[in-house]
Design goal:
The protein is an alpha/beta fold. The protein has a single domain, classed as Aldolase class I (TIM Barrel, Alpha-Beta Barrel). 24% of the residues lie in helices and 21% in strands. It is built from five helices and seven strands, in the order E-E-E-H-E-H-E-H-H-E-E-H. A seven-stranded mixed beta sheet has the order 3-1-2-4-5-6-7. Strand 1 and strand 2 form a beta hairpin. Helix 1 runs parallel beside helix 2. Bound molecules: iron/sulfur cluster. Iron/sulfur cluster binds next to loops.
Length: 166
């Protein structure tokens, strides 16, 4: 798989202390994207999924892992493998994507996207929209983007928002 980079301890990409994985490659090309270096699917560096999960395993004090980008749904099988391994470590998994939840369910994301969705606890969905940019959106850039509780959503058949509990 190809990655743009990682951050071992972040407190701004979801609740608690999180390991952030920035996947390389994004075809959404949102105007005013702040990560344009991640667009080229051939950019970044090649990383073995197993070596990344080992790095996560050896990182202390983590509450969870956040898959960001770029768009992790452009490399869904590798991202799903990492998410599953993180769950096995007892870590929560957040995933950012330019696709909406409905687009993923309707098969408009790359093959394998459902596998990644099933391994995601919270999906931060939708393209960044500059006209809807807001500093008040928790963990998001624009108001169209949602924090979706994936398990609740799949169980209930309609989109359920994730809620901050602590
Ligand atoms: S989905 Fe994210 S990384 Fe991709 S273009 Fe939009 S803001 Fe940038």
């Amino acid at each position: 798989m190809r990655l743009a980079g990682t951050i071992k301890h972040s407190m701004v990409n979801g609740p608690g202390i999180r390991f952030v994985v920035f996947f390389q490659g994004c075809t959404h090309h949102c105007p005013y994207c702040q990560n344009m270096d991640t667009w080229d699917p051939c950019g970044g560096e090649a990383v073995e999924p197993e070596s990344l999960t080992m790095m996560i395993k050896n990182t202390k004090l983590l509450d969870g892992v956040t898959l960001s980008g770029g768009d992790p749904f452009m490399q869904p099988y590798d991202a799903a493998f990492i998410a599953k391994e993180c769950h096995n470590m007892g870590l929560s998994v957040w995933c950012y994507t330019g696709y909406t939840y409905e687009q993923i369910i309707d098969g408009m994301a790359p093959e394998g996207a459902i596998e990644l969705l099933k391994q995601t606890d919270v999906l931060v969905d939708g393209r960044f929209e500059i006209d809807l940019k807001s500093e008040d959106c928790l963990y998001r850039g624009s108001t169209n983007q949602r924090l979706i509780d994936v398990k609740e959503t799949m169980a209930n058949g309609h989109v359920c928002d994730w809620k901050l509990t602590d």
